[in-house]
Design brief:
By secondary structure, the chain is mainly alpha-helical. The protein has helices spanning about 1-20, 40-50, 65-80, 85-100, 120-130, 135-150, 170-185, 190-205, 240-255, 265-280, 305-320, 325-345, 375-380, 385-400; strands spanning about 165-170, 210, 215, 220, 345, 355, 360, 380-385. Helix 5 packs antiparallel against helix 6.
Amino acid sequence: MKQTSLYLLLAFLVATVACRSGQTGSTQVPTSPAGKPYSVWMADSEMKRSPEGWMIDFRPEPKWDYTQGLFASALERVFKRTGDRKYFTYIKAFADTMITAEGKIKTYKKTDYNIDRVNPGKFLIFLHQETGQQKYKLALDELRDQMRTHPRTSEGGFWHKKIYPHQMWLDGLYMASPFLAQYGATYNEPALFDDVAKQIILVDKYTYVKEKNLFYHGWDEKREQKWADPKTGLSPNVWGRAMGWYAMALVDALDFLPQNHPQRNEVIAITKKMAGALAQYQEPKTGLWYQVVDQGGREGNYLEGSASSMFTYFLVKASKKGYIDSGKYLPLARKAYNGILENLIRKEADGTISITQVCAVAGLGGNPYRDGTYEYYINEERRDNDPKAVSPFIMASLEFEEMGRAQASNK
């Protein structure tokens, strides 16, 4: 009964917000001007732009990486929602391009200890469950095995990569934690839940700054990096997409963290803290968020597509699951989604849609050196249809569509 009551409340709230924005509260599955849900329209658009799954992220040749896995996970959800086998066929074809009959993953090297490479393991769990093919299980077991020996901080936090020693980045939480949580739930390895909770809590401990009510991009335990504050070890600024990765990690890991886990409530408390931060820094007119989250009025800053999509997904899903106050936060999610449709989605001449104003990539350290300054973040390349915006937009759309109340903007 509680779950039914929550969904009735959520449906009422979404309808109310839709009416306030000048839209009607249709009970139909949301349709775009193309006559299909935005999740499907964007998925089909990206599949047209990238006919093979390895082409995601503008790749010139096949590579096993987190962005391909992110899009595959988004398509997995579209497949489950629609039942259309073309989405299943697409992600299976990508897996079969990258994974040999013996379960070896092409272009992947475990001893690189690159946490980004673990993220695609999630859709391999789905493929293994769907097909029973052992090669998928062998491949995802190899990814799981990386995390057994992945280097850690003194308190057990996963390094972002071997080439970035003693550092935890918000990005890395999404790359490993939901995968490990799903693996633990699917293949009966409950000890993984403790590690998942530990990673989430450690990153909160070291990257959250109470005075700002924000999470900073990275933390260097040894304070060795030029970007690291000598006292706190923190990077200098709050990058929107980094917070977006962490936000998505929270709600996706909670899908699998057992209800009786001793640290589940602590993870939910962090989820509430994240929601409060997003509410505080949401741009009032558009409902979107800035590239450098807390410096919206500063010259050069811009409303960024991937962070805005990730935050929207987080807010609507956390509201639906009851982790945060749906009466407060679902309207903010709705406003953000409308803001994306009205400001960032563009219809193309060929009938596809694009998502615009997306930061291509940002990081810390490396060569050439990335110093984490404001100037660094705002001057990184922007591009349309980066998968780090495409995929969260699809997932956010699905969350609204599953409530049967998301309204299409008249474009």
